[in-house]
Design brief:
Elements: H1 22-39, E1 41-43, H2 46-54, E2 58-60, E3 63-65, H3 68-77, E4 82-85, E5 91-95, E6 101-102, E7 110-112, E8 119-121, H4 124-136, H5 157-168, E9 173-175, H6 180-194, H7 197-202, E10 206-210, E11 217-218, H8 220-232, E12 236-238, E13 241-244, H9 252-273, E14 279-281, E15 284-288, E16 295-296, H10 300-316, E17 321-323, H11 334-350, E18 354-356, E19 360-361, E20 366-367, H12 369-387, H13 393-396, H14 398-404, H15 414-423, H16 435-440, H17 447-461, H18 469-492
Parallel strand pairs: 1-11, 6-18, 7-20, 9-10, 10-12, 12-14, 13-15, 17-18
Antiparallel strand pairs: 1-3, 2-3, 4-5, 7-8, 15-16, 19-20
Length: about 500
């Protein structure tokens, strides 16, 4: 029982961070609404245009303009909370205000060999390794492929990647697909794993992914994927990949407003298909470096944009896809660590929900398991920082202080044994050894060497539990069916 009554007592449960005020978030949101009504967006899927026209949009060939009221209706109907499960049907991620989850990214052109360090095209075995490493790392919450696999039928690389991930991790998966046929294949694999479509809808263990093209273009494939997801009650990320100064205005506010407008098109269509359809708005926002023309993952403007879109999405009440743990560096060095750490911290502080691209190097061109392992360590530190501190009679420990008194120590106190593990974060890779112990026990190892050792140990020893034999057989049959379909297409050409 408290010894006194508190008046006007405020509690900060986590460290405070704010890039934008509520008024500024509202101004950006209203600007996005105006973009869609005044400028509009091109929608290249006829079915989607018919749906939008029936709902009151103004349609002129591919150009669609959206009434503000319709867009606001869709935002209000989209869920503010989306629960994602793991492969075994247990709650894994609750995408809602205040919750941040981290995972790798998809579709890198290159992959860094975990043993030789060579930058090469990704193989299916690399995707399998990504699944296993994601499964093993405690602070990586979900899996993406970290490189489009080669050595398989090119038009089915998405299907092979999903199959490899679902076999090698129990964690949720966020996955892309070339077109609706492959999305159906991926859905069928999900149904086989979950034991039925209704069970998958109740406990989805994967999110689909779709990406419109800036500025304000929605290809047939992109918007049709949002339709497919809504029809099948499967969560989808609908995210533009905007580049300040190239595909959006050269201002931060204008870039966020236009990116929000592009996500809103997917939100409107999904809610017209089925009210309450789970959709996650996008957050892949960066600059084009005007010296090199790269899509920069390490610039300070990248961090501002990521924080800004997270806060605007929170203002709108819709879960958001964030970006962090990545670097413009081509190797494991101080730049890679610094850029990854800053982005991971800001993503948590800004409240991004589904944060991807942990493991991206070379401005997104190359996936790296070493960078993923480094990111896992940083995420652990950031999560401890975000947990903040508890202030009450127990943690203030006045009685313990009085007992120990001046000149004493707290090492032998029960209070210390009770609290030190929960209060303190202990690294697995960062070095806190005394110099002689580091030289002798750790053989003077560098951070990069410790990352490699940890990665190689996971690859040598960790395996996710195998799927049942009948499920594996169904997955194989789905892949065979897809291969036959692609072979038939080639014959008709």
């Amino acid at each position: 029982m408290d010894r006194y009554v508190r008046a006007r007592y405020q509690v900060n449960q986590t460290p405070l961070f704010q890039m934008l005020s509520a008024d500024q978030c509202g101004e950006i949101y209203l600007a996005a609404l105006e973009i869609l009504q005044r400028t509009g967006a091109k929608v290249y899927d006829r079915q989607s245009r018919e749906i939008l026209a029936k709902a009151g949009c103004w349609v002129e060939e591919e150009l669609v303009r959206f009434p503000v009221g319709l867009t606001e209706w869709a935002v209000k109907n989209a869920p503010s909370k989306i629960v994602i499960y793991n492969r075994e049907g247990q709650v894994a991620m609750s995408l809602q205000e205040g919750n941040t989850y981290y995972g790798p990214g998809p579709t890198n052109t290159y992959h860094r060999d975990p043993y030789t360090g060579e930058r090469r095209k990704a193989l299916l075995s690399d995707t399998e390794n990504v699944g296993r490493v994601c499964d093993a790392l405690p602070h990586i919450d979900y899996a993406m492929d970290l490189g489009t696999p080669t050595g398989v039928t090119n038009t089915l690389a998405d299907l092979y990647a999903f199959s490899a991930l679902v076999k090698n991790t129990r964690k949720p998966i966020v996955h892309w697909g070339f077109d609706i046929e492959q999305y159906q294949d991926i859905l069928d694999i999900g149904v086989a794993v979950a034991g039925g479509l209704d069970k998958l809808q109740q406990k989805p263990f994967f999110c689909l992914y779709s990406e419109p093209s800036s500025p304000l273009l929605h290809s047939r494939e992109a918007i049709a994927k949002a339709v497919f997801a809504a029809q099948n009650r499967i969560p989808i990320v609908y995210t533009p990949c905007v580049m300040l100064g190239a595909t959006t205005p050269a201002t931060l506010a204008g870039t966020i407003a236009m990116g929000v407008a592009e996500s809103l098109v997917g939100i409107v269509v999904s809610q017209l298909i089925r009210e309450g359809s789970p959709i996650i708005m996008g957050g892949v926002y960066a600059i084009m470096d005007m010296k090199t023309t790269v899509f920069s993952y390490g610039s300070p403007e990248f961090h501002i944009l990521q924080a800004g879109i997270a806060e605007v999405a929170r203002y709108m009440g819709i879960p958001v896809f964030g970006t962090a743990g990545c670097t413009d560096s081509h190797t494991m060095d101080g730049q890679a660590a610094g850029e990854a750490a800053m982005s991971i911290l800001i993503a948590a502080q800004a409240g991004a929900n589904l944060v991807h691209d942990v493991g991206y190097t070379g401005s997104g061109s190359c996936g790296s398991l070493e960078q993923l392992v480094l990111g896992d360590e940083i995420i652990g530190m950031v999560r401890r920082f975000m947990r903040g501190m508890v202030i009450d009679d127990e943690t203030l420990a006045l009685d313990v202080v009085d007992k120990v008194g001046p000149g004493g120590h707290f090492l032998g106190e029960d209070h210390t044994m009770k609290h030190f593990k929960s209060e303190t974060w202990f690294p697995t890779l960062f070095n806190r050894m005394r110099y002689h112990a580091w030289k002798e026990e750790a053989k003077g190892s560098s951070m990069g060497e410790r990352i490699k050792d940890k990665l190689h140990a996971i690859l040598a020893n960790h395996q996710a539990p195998a799927l049942p034999g009948d499920v594996l057989q169904k997955i194989e049959q789905i892949i065979i069916r897809a291969e036959e379909r692609e072979a038939s297409k080639k014959k008709r050409r």
